[in-house]
Amino acid sequence: MPLARKRRRIGPALTTAAVAAGPPALAVLRPRTRVRDASLYFLQMWAFTVAHELPYDDPEAARRRLRIKYPIKIDTAIGRGELPNVRLQRTLSGLGRGNLLDRALSYVHWAWFIEPHATVCWILARHPEHFARAARQTAAVYDIGCATYFAVPTAPPWWASENGYTDGKVRRIMLEVGEDTWGRAWPTLYGSLGGNPWAAMPSLHFGSSLMAAFLLAETGPIEGAIGFAYSAVLGFALVYLGEHYVTDLIAGALTVFVVRAGEPPLEPAALAVSRGFQRLERIANE
Prior knowledge:
Shape: globular
């Protein structure tokens, strides 16, 4: 149903219900194993991927609700009269298009499509006792972000610049590097990953990588240091590459802190729901 929604004109409510049904259905129908747990997480992320694209199924309706100016005003204040994106790109522009920094930071950005999920899978393999909590918190960051995309669709800096809303030009450097690196394969790669250009606030790139860093830190100091180092470099990359405002990153970090602060009081309810699914699982597999 999610794949056929545009062709069959299936509405967002029914599509959301379809993808949301996947994880609980699998939890009931299959006995608990590490493969099943990993599959549950995969279905959750599949649901997010579909849901965050739904507002852009009708671009004209989404455009009427699009917020453009408020992050520009906040970031201009943060940058003391100039967008940090513009300031960084101008400062480093002497390195030339497609330089080593542009490529390295683009690769850091592309690695994000794997990093948070690889973290959860690594925890499942090496520290399975932490998996349920890690998967819950990671999924919550994505779900809160997705709900915000529906409620407050916000344009990223590169889009605002392309459409004349910023005083200085914000290049989308990742796009330039992608064209040079991947050649004719780039349009297909870009099209498969850019399903909703207005899913920018909060930055789930930064938020999910920061959550991964916290989760890695709970398993060991070296793992945590690697996670926080990647998150810091990614945050710089997202602003320099023109993908996000600093405001988006702050909102992503706040989402992480809300989830982690909300975990202790909500954990009893989550465990109660888990026990309920386990009872259904036992009945289904008798």
